[in-house]
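Hi both,

Apologies for the delay on this - the queue was longer than expected. I finally got the NAP-bound model through. Below you'll find the protein sequence and the ligand SMILES exactly as submitted, and right after that the structure tokens for the full complex including the ligand.
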Amino acid sequence: MSARQSIRILRSTAAARSVIRSAASKRAFTALAVAATRPAVAASTAAPIRPIVQQRGLKSINFGGTEEVVHERGDWPREKLLDYFKNDTLALIGYGSQGYGQGLNLRDNGINVIIGVRKDGASWKAAIEDGWVPGKNLFDVDTAIQKGTIVMNLLSDAAQSETWPHIKPLLTKGKTLYFSHGFSPVFKDLTKVETPKDIDVILVAPKGSGRTVRSLFKEGRGINSSYAVWQDVTGKAEEKAIALAVAVGSGYIYKTTFEKEVRSDLYGERGCLMGGIHGMFLAQYEVLRERGHSPSEAFNETVEEATQSLYPLIGKYGMDYMYDACSTTARRGALDWSPKFKDALKPVFNELYDRVVDGSETKRSLEFNSQPDYRDKFEKELQEIRELEIWRVGKEVRKLRPENN
Ligand SMILES: NC(=O)c1ccc[n+]([C@@H]2O[C@H](COP(=O)([O-])OP(=O)(O)OC[C@H]3O[C@@H](n4cnc5c(N)ncnc54)[C@H](OP(=O)(O)O)[C@@H]3O)[C@@H](O)[C@H]2O)c1
């Protein structure tokens, strides 16, 4: 019996399930193959579980009925990463949220990484505070790009467009260009980011803020990231993207295209991740307040219970578990109302997706974020949010958490 056949048999056992769930490393696959030789395992009729097949480091996983090939950190142990990048200098341009997270993780992984930012700007100072040394591994943007073999463009999306006429000639043959968002090349009609034809262009997009990229890495965990290839001139672009994804601190990595990454990303952050959820919080809170409920009651029923009790359950165990963990009264009502919210919101989500695809959201973002006073304008809007009653109440409620007393 081949190891692969054995693994297939093992899939149908509860014993294998726990092994497969933790199959983040080759060691786990070895354990599977060894365990698979036991006859009792083959006879089990336990519920089917997600299939998993090892093919030269790739894993095909069944995500709710759709097979996807994914990669995991265990496929790229540190020694393999160090060997893979032994002749490379990674020039990371921009030291904002992602530059910070990805840069420090690369450095801690022992990869040869340098930072390129505007001299004496806010990022230059932040980089020095994080231990980057001018002239050693901290340079102005041009010098860093010239020194780099892999240029990681982690400027803000607006800055990528603004600086492109200057940066493009520095991206000479043999270098690799890396993004963490498909924004600039996909919307090139608007951004003018037309990548040189003779270099590999790849993407690794962590699904979270750069602060989380860093904090998960420090905890020994990893952020989920997507990866994609825009241009492959060496035949090695995909492999390079996967290796870089692991090197910057990813846990599991799934394949996408530049177009799909940018669409899902712009859509998600405007929807459930940020804009949509804020809109829903505000609507619910306002109705409670207008109907005579106290700030404490309105805030606890809208935000505090969500973030402190229920959403963590969704994150850890799933939506069904969360429903199951609540009273039958709550469960009945939530199950009845969920389709109504879905029907009301789906047209809004479709409108949003259309605006992402036709470039309206990109145009809006570029125009706003290219203004010299964009930071002040954002601050004004954030101040307005800070001053909303709901978030002022939130500040007081957080203070009252026993752990903050
Ligand atoms: N933040 C996230 O959660 C996240 C998640 C996934 C992917 N991404 C992607 O990662 C990339 C970087 O995003 P980010 O959020 O890390 O960016 P950010 O925090 O906005 O970083 C801005 C960086 O760009 C520099 N910069 C701005 N304008 C510049 C200019 N005109 N010339 C030179 N440098 C300029 C800033 O330097 P100064 O300090 O000198 O102004 C700073 O280092 C983007 O493509 C983004 O879409 C972000």
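Main takeaway for now: The longest strand covers residues 223-231.

I'll put the files on the shared drive as well.

H.
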